[in-house]
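Sequence only, no structure available. Ideas?
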Amino acid sequence: MVENIEKDGSSLHPREIVAQALLEADSVVIASHEGPEPDAIGSSLALGLALEALRKRVFIYNKDGLESAKFLPGYEKLKTYLPDFIPDIFCVVDCATLDRIGEEAKAFAIRTTIVNIDHHSKGENFGTFNYVDPSAPACGVLIYEVIKELKVKITPEIATNIYAAIAKDTMGFILPTVNSASLRVAAELVEAGADLLAVMKTLKYATLRKYKLLSFFLSRIKFEDHISTSYLLLEDFEKSGAKDEDADEFIDMIRGIDGVLAAIFVREKQPGLFKVSMRSQGDIDVADIARKYGGGGHKNAAGFNFRIKDFPEIAKYQDKNIIVEEILKITRNEMLRYIKV
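Reply:
I predicted one. Tokens follow.
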């Protein structure tokens, strides 16, 4: 374990403290959130490759993995099971809370020193050492800064992973979260040899099963009061043979509809459990809504899990389509507090 680094009253930047902790460790496990996307995976792989360059024993973990990230350098290093050793540091990336890595991984992590690197708004400082900056457009930007602090050369492999991470969370550098600093980082990554073809394959990855699933999603789109909505049920995934990750980008399709200020996508994860994803523009703070229901995220991109058992007035329904409509109604009413119709 690494715990003897001065924190309270220290003049060091949190980034420097995190880097120092990683430098003092001999072994590091890197983990990211369940249901990951390229920011989580790319950040994990980039940091893992950098620590390996420093001769550290590195284990990269994600409970679910991400098929579309198979084009990223080092993806074969990612495991969906936990290691058989207790590391000096358990490093969590791109997670607002420790719960996001899964219960099994959380129980494992608390047995050692935790480093937390994250960019979510109002994320919890759950680590022994924390580098949390909500102003960063992607966790990949923070990973880049930490790697520079470690004095590790940004190789083409590291650059590719970080570029994919940032590009994903900024929708290709077009979101308002993008700033001149992140664009300069992107330029440096290209100069370092980032493989943009691998990034393109990762971000634009599609399968036939994905498009079969999309047909169900598109058939249920509704648009009212500047809010677009749609949903998917378990049987949609079964009929199309699709995976959960195949639906990850669907909400971005309906938030781009002309006149839309906010979008809601409800996805049945398992019987009685639904995932609510939200996107918005301007001052519509969906992260605030998500936190009200035990979730989190960013001001304009957030989500939460909706457990039917916690809402008896909805649990009485047998028809899942009605249940989803009730969930959408609750979420829409929360959004309407921000929208002048």
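The domain at 209-336 is CATH 3.10.310.30 (Diaminopimelate Epimerase; Chain A, domain 1).
Hope that gets you unstuck.
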